[in-house]
Amino acid sequence: LGMADDLRLALERDELVLHYQPTVDLASGEIIGFEALVRWQHPTRGMVPPLEFIGIAESTGLIVPLGRWVLTEACRQAVEWGRPLKMAVNVSVRQFEAGDLAATVAAVLAETGMPADQLCLEMTESVLLTDTDENLSRIVALKALGVMLAMDDFGTGYSSLAYLRRFPMDVLKIDRSFVDRLTTGDAGDETLVTTIVRLGHRFGMRTVAEGIEDETQLTALRAMGCDYAQGYFLSRPLPSAAAGALLETGL
Ligand code: G
Ligand code: G
Ligand code: MN
Ligand code: NA
Description:
46% of the residues lie in helices and 22% in strands.
């Protein structure tokens, strides 16, 4: 069986699972929500990371039903946890361009009872780079549902600045490559991240730093006024039961 057929069956056989990585308020240290990250519990290959199958899902169009499953499961889980949490879900460019994502999101919100303002859709520059009126109207349709929109991996592409003005994004996620460099002690790296945080704030966005791996980075980002953080230093992505437990105890 090829990987594509295998993946199609995986969806039918419920082999996909979501892990949840907490998003932490840098000022209070509280968990304000999670990012849902898909994994494939393959019967023979074990836990397959998304980098090994999202590409295939995209090229075969399976990303549409897979993406709908992810959205539904993440919302269902957030509602089950029963407290006001932000649940962030990654949306790939193919999912965005194929079919009516806003209609899908509206249906999932209705099915699960998830409050729209607790769902955050993360998209990378590749979604926004195709700066067409069609993409703008898709973004506007999503915003009209009341969901939040995040710009993921900010700073890794080429033309990040023009679309800060054009698209109504709520959250800017600072790519972990910038966070990585905060340990070098280089003043230039600090200036860069401080400037990204300010840029986000000036456009009315909340800022999330990704990939925090040590205390130095955490302290630096807090001092810079970055709002939220994620990373292995705070917590790895966790299976749902462990994520739910962490929500009870705090970090
Ligand atoms: O969890 P991990 O760090 O292995 O994720 C690797 C990449 O896969 C990240 O870029 C992440 O955004 C992407 N990814 C994880 N889950 C999903 C998902 O549900 N949908 C899409 N489109 N991408 C995902
Ligand atoms: O592209 P996106 O931001 O969705 O990617 C999230 C990915 O980053 C997930 O696969 C997650 O496992 C990974 N990740 C989360 N925290 C850390 C971290 O502290 N260090 C590294 N190297 N990867 C991380
Ligand atoms: Mn993401
Ligand atoms: Na990211």
